[in-house]
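Researcher: We're teaching a course module on how sequence relates to structure. For the next exercise, students receive a sequence and then see the predicted structure as C-alpha cells, so they can try to spot secondary structure elements on their own. Here is the exercise chain.
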Amino acid sequence: MAGAARVVLLGPPGAGKGTQAKLLQDEFGAAQISTGDILRKAVAEQTPLGKQASGFISSGALVPDSLIVNLVAERLKEKDCAKGFLFDGFPRTIPQAESLDGILKKAGLDLNCVLSVQVPQNIIVERLAGRRTCRKCGAMFHVAFNAPKLDGVCDSCGGELYQRDDDKEQTIAHRLQVYDTQTAPLVNYYRARGLLREIDGVGEIDQIRARVIEALGDLVR
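Model: And here is the predicted structure for the students to work with:
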C-alpha cells in the first residue's frame, strides 16, 4: 500500500461493506473499524465508555452520537490504525461525519477516500431476507448463495440456523428507509469534498473486490 489508506465505506444494509472491509483488512493491513464491534468490545471489557454504553443498551435506548464518537476516537489511538483504517457503518449521519472530521483533524489526519457501494433495493432485500444465522456459533449462511449442507443446521457446529428479526422483510424495509433518511445524505456530503468514489456492488464477492481496489487506485498500489 502506498501510504496508509483512511477510508469510509458507505452503502445500505446488505451492500457488502463488512465483507469488503474484511478483505481489504486481510490484504493490506488496514484496521477494519465497525462501531458495532467497538461497542461490543467496550461493553465486554467494561471500559469507562463501555459502562456508559451498557446503560443505554440495557434500557433499549439508542447509544448517543457523542458516546459513539468518543469510542471511535479511542479506537483510532490503537496501534493497528497506524497502517490505515476502513470505517464500516460509521459515520451514519452528517453530524457523525462532522465529528469524525474533527477527530481526524485533531490527530493531524484526514480521510483520503469514501467508497459508496451501490446496490438496488430488490437485491438488498434478497440478500438480507435469505440470511440465516447459527444460534450457537454465529456463523452466517444464505438460502440461495451459501446454503448449509443440511437445511436449518450449521455446517460448522451443528447448531440451529434462524432468521434474525432484522433480516425479515418488514424490518428490512424500515432499515432501508432509515438509511435513505439519515445516511444517504452523506453521499452528497463527501461528493462535495471531492472524496467520493462510487462502485457497483452487484456480482460475485471477488468481482466487487476488484472494483473496490480499482476505485481506491494509488491508495493500494
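Model: If you want an answer key for the exercise: The CA atoms of residues 65 and 114 lie 20 Å apart. The chain is about 45% helix and 15% strand.
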